[in-house]
Every structure is written in C-alpha cells, then in structure tokens.
Amino acid sequence: TRVIFVNPAKDLNIGVNVGAQAYLPGASAHVDFTVTDANGRPVAAALGVNIVDESVFALQDMQPGMEKVYFLLEKEILQPRYEVHVIDPGVIVEPPTPLPPVVEAKQQRAATVLFAALPQSTTSYSFAVNTYALKLKQMRDAWSKRVLADATRYSIAMQIFLRRYGRYPTRQEGVAVLVKTKTMFWLIPDQWGRPYEFGPLWGESYRAGFTMHTYGADGVSGTDDDLTAVWQPGNDPYIQGTGGIGEGGPGRDGGGIILGPGGGIMFPPVPAAPPDQNGGAKTGTTGADGGAADATSGQQQDVRVRQFFPETLYVNPAVITDGTGRAGIDFQVADSITTWRISAMGSTKDGLLGSTDAPLRVFQEFFVDIDFPVSLTQGDEVAVPVAVYNYLDTPQTVRLEAQPEPWFEPLGSMTQTLQVQPNEVAGVRFPIRITGLGFQSLTVKAFGQTRADAVRRTVEIVPNGQRVEVTFNDKLDKDVAQTFNIPLDSIAGASNVLVKVYPGIFSQLVEGMDSIFQMPYGCFEQTSSTTYPNVLALDYMKRTQQGSPETYMKAEGYINTGYQRLLSYEVDGGGFSWFGDPPANKVLTAYGVMEFFDMAKVYDIDQAVIERTQQWLIKQQDPDGAWKPDKEYLHEESWGRIQHNEILPTAYITWALLASGYMGAETAKGVAYITANMGQTDDPYTLGIIANALVAAKSPAADDVLNRLIGMAVEEDGKIHWKAGVSTLTFTRDEAADVEATAIIALALVNSGSHPDVTGKVLAYLISKKDPRGTWYSTQATVMALKALVASLDRAASDTKADVKVLVNGQQASAFSITPDDSDVMRLVSAKDLVKDGDNEVRIQFAGTGSSFYQITGVYYLPWTDVKPTPAGNLIDIQLTYDRTELDTNAVVTATAKVTYNGPGKAKMVIVDLGIPPGFEVQADDFGALVEQKVIQKYSFTGRQAILYFDSIDAGQPVTFSYHLKAKYPLKAQTPESSAYLYYNPEVKATVKPVQMIVH
Questions:
Q1: Burial group, residue 451, by CB count within 10 angstroms (0-12, 13-18, 19+)
Q2: What percent of the chain has pLDDT over 90?
Q3: Which of 476-485, 643-652, 779-788 has the highest mean pLDDT?
Q4: Any idea which fold 465-502+799-862 has?
Q5: 764 vs 504, 712, 788, 801, CA distance in Å?
Q6: Which residues of the chain are in CATH 2.60.40.690 domains?
Q7: What are phi and psi of 946, to 5 degrees?
Q8: Per-residue CA distances from 538 to 126, 518, 547, 826 (Å)
Q9: ∠ CA(514), CA(517), CA(523), 5° rounding?
C-alpha cells in the first residue's frame, strides 16, 4: 500500500500586507491579513501566525503547506482554542497598537525636505516652502494620532497609580515606576522605537500632569518633527478642531510641535542661539539652538542601544479575521537587523485550509555588531571582534567605543577609529581579560559622521573548574535544615545554593517536561523518553481539568515534535530500532507501543501505528508463549545470570501489549508463561516488570509477586527502595538501575491499589533521588518515576496551604505562600549572594497544613588543578589531544580522541561530549564521515560542544578518531570540558581536563 494525499477541492488564499518595506530596529510594526476562498470571496478564518528569523524558519519542521497533511490526519479540523479573559483594573494598559511607520524610502525623502534647517524670512514663501508646509500637515496628522494614543495610555496608568498608592509618581521615580509596580507591562516607545521623554508640568510630582516628548523621525532634538503631548488630570490628551493655532499647553523648551489639550498645534518661537565662551553663536542642530548641524553631529547624539535579539518575534495561534476576511496585528520588532519570516496557516469552520509566508525586513544603513562566542572561561584573554556595516553612499570615519564593565580588564584601548567605505564591512578587535562570572554584557557604540549605532551582546562566563553538586530531597511538612560544605579552595564567586519547593507531585511533572527535553535524544528510546513526560502531563491535566493554556500548548508542541521523530525510527517490515536500521528490537518496540497508546489518549495520532506495532510483536512470540531476548542487544554478562532469560522480555512485552489495550490469546499465553516461570527469578527488577504485567492482566498471582518484593525491600530513613540485581533492558546498572527498578515496582504498587503504606515510602524514595536537573539519572528511570508519581496523583489530594520561608546562613532568601490553586507551580530560590566558604546551613520554615517536597542543591567549582584525573582502569576512559595548542588566526588544529571501555562485554549507548573551544569553528564534515564509516550513529552540535552517539564500544577495543577545528580570531582561552559516559548510567563517566589554546 502507498499513502497518497488528495488535494481538497477548495482552498484559502491568505494575503499578507506588511506596513513598510523595511523597519528600523525596535520600531512598531503593523501587518494586515486578508483571507479569501478559491473564488476570491472574503471568509472568516482563524490564522496561526508565527514570525521567526529566516534562519530558524528554514530549519523548522512545520513549513506552510504541510499543514494540509497534518490537519487532514486529525479527527477534528479545529481543536478548541484557549483564551484568557481577565478584567484587572490594576493592569489595564495593554501593549501599544501603533500606526504603520513611514516607509523607509519616503521617510528619507521627506526628512530631506522637512527637517532641513530653514532660516526665518519675512519674504513670501517659495514653492519649496509651500510644499514643505503641505507635507508637514499631512504627516503631522498621522504622527499626532500615535503620540496622543500613547499619551492616553500613560495618563490612564497615572490614574491607576494614584488609586493604588494615593499619590502620583515623583519626578525622581519617573514613568519607570509604572512598570516596576506592574501598572504597565512596559514603557511604550514612540513609533520610531525610541523612548519618550517625560517631565512633570511643574514641581517634583506628576500630580499637575506631564509632558511627553518625542524627537520624531530624525531622532534629533530641536527639529521641526519634534512632538510634545501634554496631559493634565481631568483632560484628555487629544486634539480637537482643525489643527490651527489654539490653546496649547505648556511645552518643552527647544522648539517642535506642542499638542495641547486646548485643541491646537502651536510652534514655539525659536530662541536666539546663546553665545559660546568666545562670544560667538553656538552651533548645533537646527530648531531650538538655531544654526546648522556641525560635522560631528553623528558622534554627539545619544544613540539607542540595540540589545533584544530573539529567534522568535511573534506567536499567535488564533488571529481571527472579521466577516470581510480581514485582521491585523501590531507588535514591536526586535533589534536584530535581519529578515523575519511571517508564516500564516489558516482554517475555517468549514474545513478550508490555506497558508502563506512573507518577509518582514528590519534594516538600517549603518550599524555595528559584536561576534561573541557562546561562552568564555574565567581567565580567558580574547580579542572581541566588532564589525561595522556601512551601507550608506558615503564613506564614514567611525569612532568605536567599548564601554568598560567590571567583568573584564581591558588589554588595550577601548576606543578605536576606522575608515569604512560605502557598502563595506570593516572590523576591529577589543582585547580583554575575563575576570567575572555568569552572563555578562558588552556594549559597543559606533559614531559615524552622519549616523550612529550601539549594540549590547551577552556572553556566558563559566568558572575555570569542575562543577560539583550536593543535593538533598525530601518531604516538606515541617521545618527542615540541611548543611553542606563549600571547600575553601573552591573558585570564588562561583558557588550557589538553589532551593526548589514543589507544592505537589504535579509540579515535579511540569518541571520534568522541560528538564528531560534538554537531555540528548539521538535514538528511538531517548527521543521517546523525552516525549513521554509531556504525554503524562497532558493526560493528567485533561483528566483533572487543571493546568494553564500555556502548559497545554507547551506539552502539545513537544508531543508533536517527538511523535514525528519517533516515526522515523520504524523499520521496514515492522517494529522499531535504536536508529531506524534493521533488525527491529522487540523490547524497544514494546516500550514504543506503550507510549503511542498513552499518547493517543491526549493527542490524535495514526491508530494504525499502534495496531501494526502490536501485530509485529505478536508475530515474534514463540509457541510456548515466550519472547526471546534480542540477541544483538543482549548483555550476556548480566542476563546470563537469569536462569530463564526469556522471562524478562516476555514479561515486558506482555505488559506492553496489555497496557496498550490488546487482550487476546497471545497475552493470555504470555501471562501463563510468566506465572509458570516467575518462581525461578529472584532479582527485583525482573520481578517488578512481572508484577506490572500481572497487575495489568488482573491476575491473582500479582499479589504473590508484590508480597515477595516487599520482603526484598530496603528501608532507610522512612523510605523504601530496591536493588535492581541485574542490568536493565536499556543497559542501566548500579544506582540508576536501582532507581529504575524502584520506579517500576512503585508503578505496580500504585496500579494494584494494595499496600498503601509501602507505596508512600517508595514514592518518598523516588522524590529523594531526583537530580538537580529535575530528572532521575537516565531517561527510563525518569519516565518510570514520573509514571508512578502521576498514577499516584489519582489517589492523593493536593490540599497544601502553608507559608514558606527559605533562610540561608541565617538570612532570609525568600518567602512565599502555597495554596491548592497553585499546586502546579514550582518555586525556585537562588541564594548566590548568601553563600560562603565552609559550612552553609539552609533552613526551610513550613507553617500550615498539608505537605510539599523540597530540593536543596549546593553548587561549587573546584579548580582543575585540584581535580584528580580519571583513574586508570576506569570503566570508561577518554583521551583527547591536539596536534598544537598555539596557532595563527584561520589556521586549523587537529584533535584526536580515544575512547576505551574497560568493562565486560560491550558498552551500549555511549555518549562522547567534545568541548569546542571558544573562537573556533568545528569542521562538521569530519563527523559526517564518521557516520558514513559506521563509527558513530549520529552527531549533533550545541553552541559549545559536539555530541557523538555510539551504538556500542567493545571492551578492550578503543575507538580512535580525529576532527579539525579552525581558529576564527586571536585569543588565549580554555577549551571546555570533554567527557565520555554511558547514557543509561551517567555516573559511569570519564572527563578530560581543559587545555589552553593560544591564537595569534
């Protein structure tokens, strides 16, 4: 059979009209949409609108046009949309609804005429001046509407502030206090993206009103496009009448247009230029000061700093058109100088679909940018590259100023000058030594002869040492205290303490949604396990009717991405394998069918995937009811200790079939085989899987297995767990295997409804083993722990109501309240400023009813000189060498890695994390060749690392490979840490210390 797509008879045509050919960074933008059917008739539709950077758009999975296939596979064309309708008199000032800005070309032409210095004359006006007055009047109307609309928003915010606090803001507080008190969402800029200038009408308070000033299109003070709106309590800041001279309110000194409450526009007289110290007239910008602009005006103006650089600019899943098929959106563009891609996907209640995309260009002819690496290490010396882009028609002499910051020491001048020709990009470097830590920003200003620009970029500074974490987890129903020690020789300023408080188990699940998705996902099981927490969360939210629309959308987005990835691992002929290559793996396929079944409860998927996967598993069953292990993936050194090693895969596959809704003769034979042979098994991991299979089958033998497991349990400090006793189905061992086995047994206990006293202690153990990332060591342990916790939620109420205080070393770090209404909200407290060397005491005071859970994590860094090397004979080892550590810019260095497994048999699913030095570019072709040679299965890049996925490494047979790195610019920097570890046993890890690279 072949799947084909039948094109619908009718479609939607979506038109996109961007308000300008190009916008300046930070400007307000307006986009109109029109929707018609195939016959050109307007129709009402719901549009999903996304605006992302072009580079991101090219990589995204859901391109316009593909929604046909996507939606036609759904049972319902339109799923319910979520809207939040809130009337809160405390926050009524919404984001601005600006008018479209002037098209750049028209703006430049108009500025040439409108804003030039014009001397006053008593003679009759020339033709040019009459044209000026006419055009000024035309443009004035559009400008004044926007200014007055913004002034109205600010006036409303002032009145709300008065009602809240019984006073108006002071001059010193300014309008910024409106945002600090959440009276406004943000300070609304003018239509050119610049902040308004505010001042009280008089005195030190805004009680008499305010003036709100913009420098207009040219951004220069004192020119004829300046606008000032005036507001007084009891009056609206809008214009009435014909626009002639009327009762203008008090204005700004310095000229420009004043919009007064009396309904008129007036032009203040231009004062005489004050004499300078030499008795001459002061030269400057036109307008207030008179005279022509001097040659260095581009270097004197206060330039706006560009600092907001998102990849996604705008998302709205439900832009609803009116009856004429029209809708519009307003937003502020980011500071990125790029082309954004608007994608719109529409649907109607009749099932018509359509999509389109259109560009939105953000550009300015002169700008500066910083080329930071993703991260740097404390102590690095780097020459930060700064580029100047000149798309003007004239050459520019540019003065560059890098602003001093406390996180670095300059190694040269922070001011440089360069010549940039028309349509040329030129660059300089600012040498600095890194002394600070954390996320830090560098600001560079560029002043040309006619234009100026400024940019602020952020870089992460990591400590030059190995990260060490100490974690405590437990129940929070009374005051608790924990103490951890930070060594005296740890890196100063790098230590921290993080306290998480989970009001309920559901908040732990929500945290897991993000945490596990950040783990590597190169194979089927990893991809499956990064998707499963979102399936569990969405299922619980829908069953209990809780959770926010944002959480719903996040979970659905993750599920959709994961589902599409999972399908790519299906093997021809049926079943799934780790990387999609034959042969299929029975146990892995069983895990997948359980997830697909759970996914189908909350998300529309192709039911045929579940059915054909079940049938493939059934065909693999032996006549006696057993399923043999997958020989290619069998840990013989571990499973060989099981007398009947068919019992483990048989129990797991039987459990999967029953849990996915299949009940037939095959599952009955599987249950019979399990019951007949389970007495010959004595490891808790296998017995836990057997218990789940028998509980799912509602077999009386389930109680016997659970009672046997309880007799094998280990109880410590009121918590119960089990030792796995065998390597798990995904090759996990040691403590990670113990956590996974305990989670599997907990799931059986919860689903059976028996032994509630034991179940509570088992869940307490699982919560105590949560790592700082919000996961449980490995993907399988995390998924099984979350499944057990979610299953327990149906039998437990979250009725905590308490006040919580967090104190670190006797000082309060945070205080908050917990109520049943916010049980899905995890609280995170960072007390970096309160940490000290030596013993640190963390106390959590709990006053109220119910119970929560807490996690305390102490973090510090040990200098690499104090870190012991990986011992010889470690279970896994990695060595990394470079053919040279000192080279010139644009030269290439060869790195050679050697990974060795020293245990028995072979290591499955090995991850090698190679640190990429800052300022270097990795040559991806080297890793592509490793995939072709079957050395690795897959690779991926993050900003500072290359992650390689090995299917297996045989004991005593080292894997050696080389790759190349190209130096981009001068620096003296540490390479990031590199490591190798077993994916399902992350504690089995070897680390390579960083080395210093010097680039001339």
A1: buried
A2: 34
A3: 476-485
A4: Jelly Rolls (2.60.120)
A5: 12, 18, 11, 20
A6: 868-999
A7: -110, 125
A8: 72, 19, 9, 17
A9: 170
Residue 640 has pLDDT above 50, yes or no: no
Looking up tokens 């917990």 gives 818
880 near 914, Cβ under 8 Å? Answer: yes
| CA-to-CA dists, residue 73 to 67, 69, 348, 614, 692, angstroms | 10, 6, 17, 21, 33
Please tell me the predicted confidence (pLDDT) of residue 543.
Answer: 73
> 251 and 262 in contact (C-beta within 8 Å)?
no
Query: CA 678, CA 708: separation in Å to the nearest integer?
Result: 11
Collapse the DSSP code of 756 into the 3-class scheme (helix H, G, I; strand E, B; otherwise coil) and give the result: helix
Q: Are 504 and 824 in contact (CB under 8 A)?
A: yes
Spatial distance between the Cα atoms of 701 and 748, rounded to a whole number of angstroms: 13
Residue the block writes with tokens 């006793």: 725
DSSP E strand stretches across 22-124: 28-36, 46-53
* Separation of alpha carbons 407 and 459, rounded Å: 11
CA distance 822 to 801: 10
Chain centre distance of CA 813: 26
Question: What number does CATH give the domain 868-999?
Answer: 2.60.40.690
Q: How many residues does the chain have?
A: 1000
**Mean pLDDT, to the nearest integer, of 33-57?**
88
Backbone angles phi, psi at 761, to 5 degrees: -70, -35
Contact 259, 147 (CB under 8 A): yes
The C-alpha atoms of residue 349 and residue 962 are separated, in whole angstroms, by 57
3-state secondary structure 304-329: CEECCCCCEEEEEEEEECCCCCEEEE
In this prediction the pTM is: 0.57
Amino acid 644: pLDDT: 54
- Is 439 in contact with 481 (CB distance < 8 Å)? no
Residues 6+ apart with CB under 8 A from 11: 37, 38, 352, 353, 354
Q: How far apart are the first and last CA of the chain?
A: 62
Helices and strands in the chain, H and E counts: 20, 44
Q: If you average pLDDT over residues 136-143, what whole number do you get?
A: 68
Residue 268 has pLDDT above 50, yes or no: no
Task: Return the CATH class of domain 124-292.
Answer: alpha beta
Extract the runs of DSSP E, i.e. beta strands, from 463-566: 465-476, 480-486, 496-502
DSSP secondary structure code for residue 633 in this structure: G
Q: What is the DSSP string of 98-134?
A: PPPPPPHHHHHHHHHHHSS-----SSPP-HHHHHHHH
543: CB partners within 8 A, 6+ apart = 794
* Ranges in the chain annotated CATH 2.60.120.1540: 465-502+799-862
Closest CA to 937 of 949, 924, 952, 925: 949
Q: Residue 17, SS3? A: strand
Quote the CA–CA distance of 626 and 654 in Å, as a whole number. 9
Protein fold of 366-462: Immunoglobulin-like (2.60.40)
- In whole angstroms, give the CA distance from residue 456 to residue 434: 17
Q: CA-to-CA distance for 870 and 261, rounded, in angstroms?
A: 76
**How would residue 161 be classed by pLDDT, with cut points 50, 70 and 90?**
confident
881 in helix, strand or coil?
strand
Instruction: Report whether CATH 3.30.930.10 matches the domain 13-90+308-361.
Output: no
Start-end of CATH 1.50.10.20 domains in the chain: 523-731
Residues of the chain with CATH 2.60.40.10: 366-462
801's enclosing H/E stretch is: strand 801-808
Q: How far is Cα of residue 357 from the mean position of the Cα atoms in its chain?
A: 24
Cβ neighbour number for residue 139 with a 10 Å cutoff: 18
From the list 418, 414, 368, 427, the residue with the least C-alpha distance to 398 is 418
**Separation CA 893–CA 884 (nearest Å):** 6
Domain boundaries 523-731, corresponding CATH code: 1.50.10.20
